[in-house]
Specification:
The protein contains 16 helices and seven strands. It is α/β, with parallel strands linked by helices and about 300 residues long. It folds into two domains: about 10-120 and about 165-225 and about 295-300, Rossmann fold (3-Layer(aba) Sandwich), CATH 3.40.50; about 225-270, no CATH class.
Length: about 300
């Protein structure tokens, strides 16, 4: 018997490095919400990855930050434990980068709620670069230098740092197909400062009430940790070696060992040069103007 396809009630579509992991974890604290153990299934987007393990079906009961799931049956199985009373969500930042996704989601569920978190485009770009550098995806040790490097469009190792912050066309793709009442824009700089009130508003948008327990459970964010022994770490990152390690021990243990052995809490993440930040911000002036008109939110004021 053919299984009925699951219907997703809401989508947290990004953007990347705009707090989607934190939002995922707060939503996941609610008994009224079901989110799969794969935080980013990437089912509705057409993206790629240089990591072979991203395409392997998830093992039931194991948590993953991201997978690239192309099989509808594998996707449906992510929600097999959801009850009929829970809202089902999908939190994949690639859904805003791939501007064809909005129509696919609308076809899947025209009543779906869409959540978009946006951050100052230069700060987002720099955070993305730092993440890629410390995870070994990016080898250029200067943010300024990497802006002139050849572009890699592959999602799992993408270095289109500035391009990803041109939000207008990405957001417009959703406004073109969904009623604006079904779209909630979250401003990273606002909701991270007024966390509890903003999370409550997010639950209200979904037709839910954020219980006190949502805030009692500790929530992890996708923080970047400075690293030491990077030469050794880069050796261990080779695909064949990584495959051997992953077959031997769990991802949770890998993350713990990486943090304890390679993490360097004595250092702080270096900050972007203020002059460079100001120079790059000018490149977004027109895009931010159009985004403000589209959403009726004055991002020019928000992003100084």
């Amino acid at each position: 018997m053919k299984k009925k396809n699951v219907t997703i009630d809401f989508f947290l579509v990004g953007a990347a490095r705009c707090g989607t992991t934190t939002l995922y974890n707060y939503l996941n604290n609610s008994n009224d919400v079901f989110l799969p153990r794969v935080k980013e299934p990437n089912f509705f987007s057409e993206v790629d990855s240089p990591k072979n393990e991203d395409f392997k079906p998830p093992v039931p009961g194991i948590k993953y930050h991201a997978k690239i799931i192309n099989d509808v049956n594998v996707y449906n199985d992510l929600y097999i434990e959801a009850s009929n009373t829970q809202l089902k969500g999908d939190t994949s930042p690639s859904y805003i980068w791939d501007t064809n996704v909005a129509k696919r989601i609308f076809k899947h569920n025209p009543k779906a709620k869409i959540i978009i978190s946006l951050r100052h485009p230069v700060d987002r770009a720099y955070s993305h670069y730092i993440m890629n550098y410390y995870t070994g995806v990016e080898n250029t040790s200067s943010f300024e230098d990497t802006l002139d490097a050849p572009k890699n469009p592959v999602w799992g190792s993408c270095n289109q740092y500035l391009e990803m912050g041109r939000y207008y066309n990405q957001v417009k793709a959703y406004y073109d197909v969904f009623p604006k009442e079904q779209i909630k824009i979250l401003i990273y700089e606002d909701w991270t400062k007024k966390l509890e009130s903003e999370i409550k508003e997010l639950f209200k948008f979904l037709g839910l009430i954020a219980a006190d327990s949502v805030f009692r459970t500790p929530v992890d964010s996708n923080k970047i940790e400075p690293l030491k022994k990077k030469a050794l770490l880069n050796v261990l990152r080779h695909n064949k070696i990584k495959a051997l390690i992953k077959n031997a021990i769990s991802q949770e243990l890998i993350d713990a060992l990486k943090s304890s052995f390679f993490g360097d809490n004595s250092k702080e993440i270096e900050k972007i040069n203020p002059e460079l930040r100001q120079e790059l911000s000018l490149k977004y002036k027109e895009d931010i103007q159009k985004l403000s008109e589209l959403t009726e939110i004055d991002f020019r004021e928000k992003w100084q």
